[in-house]
Design a protein that fits this description.
Layout lengths: L5 E7 L3 E7 L5 E8 L11 E2 L1 H18 L7 E8 L4 E5 L9 E2 L7 H9 L3 H8 L8 H10 L3 H4 L7 H6 L3 E5 H10 L3 E3 H4 L5 E2 L4 E2 L1 H6 L9 E3 L22 E6 H8 L8 E5 L3 E8 L10 E6 L7 E8 L3 H9 L9 H6 L8 E3 L17 E3 L7 H27 L5 E5 L6 H11 L2 E5 L4 H13 L6 H7 L2 E5 L8 H14 L9
Parallel strand pairs: 1-5, 5-13, 9-12, 14-20, 20-21
Antiparallel strand pairs: 1-2, 2-3, 4-7, 6-8, 10-11, 14-15, 15-17, 16-17, 18-19, 21-22
Amino acid sequence: MTARTYVGAVDQGTTGTRFIVFDHEGQVVSNAYEKHEQIYPEPGWVEHDAMEIWENTKTVISDALAQAEIEADQLEAIGVTNQRETTVFWDAETGKPVYNAIVWQDRRTTERVEQLEEEGKVDEIREKTGLEADAYFSATKAEWLLEEGDPIKMERARPEDVRDRAEQGEILFGTIDTWLIYNLTGNHITEVTNASRTMLYNIHDLEWDDDLLEEFSVPREMLPEVRPSSDEETYGTTDPDGFLEAEVPVAGALGDQQAALFGQTCFDAGDAKNTYGTGSFFLMNTGNEAVESDHGLLTTIGFQRSGEDVQYALEGSIFVTGAAVEWLEDVDLIDDPSETAELARSVDSTDGVYVVPAFTGLGAPHWDQRARGTIVGMTRGTRKEHIIRATLESIAYQTRDVAEAMEADSGIDMTSLKVDGGAVKNNYLCQLQSDIIGSEIARPVVDETTALGSAYAAGLAVGYWDDLEELRNNWQIDREFQPDPDENVDARYDRWMDAVDRSLDWARDGGD
């Protein structure tokens, strides 16, 4: 293996797009990032411009290569990782989106999900997909676009009926991985972890489910082909006449949370990681067994390598963690997220204040689409430092909610949790998390584990790395945090649960 070849990873997230070039040791060689616009047409609606995302993707790939003075043909492969349930429709002929992408956080289909609950269809959906019926997933978003979307407003679609064109395969469906793979290679492909987040894919039979396609009236003709996460056949190559001016294999893709699981080398049953981003996503590898949750977790596909069985995972999806810190900035309680640790330390406690950041409802293990952000316990003596500390504590409490559910479902007592994402640079939060969860927290040297996971998937597929053992040897600890035995967190956690109860079922007619 020459030292002059690399693997690149497109990390397309909720707030921006990053391209990272990794070397054989799994170290970051170069890194470029672009933000994109968050579009809020109505309360509870969240959209992205898929063309802006693609333009930004080209920009960050070009910028990262230029920064390191690397030619595109020195990339042995490209991997893709992405915000998962976000849904895009585009015109097969022009390659242009028909509408804005509907983002995973979007709640416009809440009433449709409540209808599924009333009709008793939730158990069937859970059995086939491993998912709770929720507006979070792609199925109701796709249904809404087919039934309610107004393409003329978007000025990007012909005025013909979108459903008719979808049934002819002229309008294509995809999550963001599919959109990027299509633009990079010209092929309409997704992979198993992203397919498993659509609420249209049977995770046991490993195929699009006819009953679910019928329930949500999604034509099979518009769906992508489903491939392994690490694909020796590759998804295609970049166009030598395109922006890269080189043929680079696109050989791996994983939804962002599964990519972090892979990047954290959680290859064995019982291995667990938590990624702290806009939301937090806690995954535990359960091996070849799809463990059914009795405690409000999702059963999902962890990853699949070419010619091998699917590895499953349990997942706890927490909708708002990092976004709660962004909210502190939005309302001018802080000027910069880096201030939160110092301000939180400046008070001895929250003084009885609890923040439940249910801005877009509550995910696992509560699953309440109508919960809303709540601050309880304030007095005239409450200062902003108390609210800031309570916001950081809410991140750790929500993780404990999921950890307890995960231990109950899996029967595995977790002794160590691997963490990654932007928020784990905050030592105060990592120690707080260790205390509240009662477990060791391990933070790796390379914290871009989401991008690293998709790079590993692509690199394994083309032989850049030989096996999983080689990847395990790359993983190095930056710092470990141990729980403080003197911290009495159980009483505080009980009060947290009381605060959660206050937030539930708030967004009713006239209250949203």
